[in-house]
TrEMBL record:
It comes from Mycolicibacterium cyprinidarum. This is Fatty acid desaturase. InterPro entries: FA_desaturase_dom (IPR005804), Fatty_acid_desaturase (IPR012171). Residues 69-334 form the Fatty acid desaturase domain. Signal peptide: none annotated. CDD domains: Delta6-FADS-like. It comes from the Bacteria.
Amino acid sequence: MAIADIGAYTHLNDVEIEALGQEFDAIRRDIEESLGARDAAYIRRTIRFQRALDVAARLLIACSRSRAGWVAGTAALAFAKAVENMEIAHNVGHGQWDWMNDPEIHSSTWEWDMVGDSSQWRYSHNYRHHVFSNVVGVDDDLGFGVIRMTRDQPWKPEHLLQPLRNLLLASIFEWGIGLHGIHSERDRLAPDEAKVGQARKAFLAKIARQSVKDYVLFPALSRSRWRRTLAANAAANLLRNYWAYVVIFCGHFPDGAEKFSAEVLENESPGEWYLRQMLGAANFNAGPVLAFASGNLCYQIEHHLFPDLPSNRLAQIAVRVREICDKYDLPYTSSSLAYQYFLVLRTIHKLALPDRFLVATSDDAPETASERKFLPGAVPAAGRHGVLAVLATAFPVRTLKRRR
């Protein structure tokens, strides 16, 4: 089942885990000390690009009379929405740019172009997800409450429908994020019904503003061509939803993104926290364009290790994280976007079935593993340490696949 003892799973002792934590702390210090004008210019340039693309796309949709113009404008609008959602709003909401002390680009003031309320998302995401990442029963993002992503979640007959639930969630992903945020607010504020009511009103107000903007205001500005603009806005939102869903799921649910029991939180050291963040996330291979389009969440491992460090630095950080993984014989889960999504879909469809139809053991399945997968007394090869050194002896083929 889920990992209950990170030290036992990684085959690192307390001294090694503390040293690993200090190495990650050093990465943070180095990046924080080097932040400056170049980084500030990057986020301001990104915001200008996104806003210019948004305006250009809407003008093309409204003014072009050809089908090709409509398709190009809709695609450009979808890309603008994806950039705003992922490279700007998500990262601003994490406080990655708070060090600039710019009130426009600050986690407390930015409101994103989605139906969810940013302040509610910041609690559900920055706290409940990132602090307790992949802890079963604590991290609400583990399947988002509607999809079974680990055998630690008991099977129910309703899970037979999760392939369809998955498709629905992908299509309405912004609504799923919004509802996820308000549910977290309800849990945080209960039993104060007055504050819960205020949170619901804030969520409904955001839905109203977003719906009026996308489906009333901009179509109305197009006058006689309002149907064309309405369809473009709906299509752009749908495409943005699909893209955000793929990126998020590929960073959290492919094979190698491990899950943890609540036991790991007891007296968790800084080094163990870093290990949990690293083991619980997955990357996908990307060049500069794909990285930008994904909000640099192709570096999900690095983002979970340092969620409040600017996204434009994650590629630089990744080099040092890989070196640490090699040094301590730890897995660094990364592959192509298509392959990672294939693994996600395989898990979703497989775990829709009752456990009796599954082949692998509950402690050594591709999507769910624990320290109980190892034989008693299993140790790394002489002169090495870490889980990969053990896996290379016991499961050489699987180890190679995980490190691709």
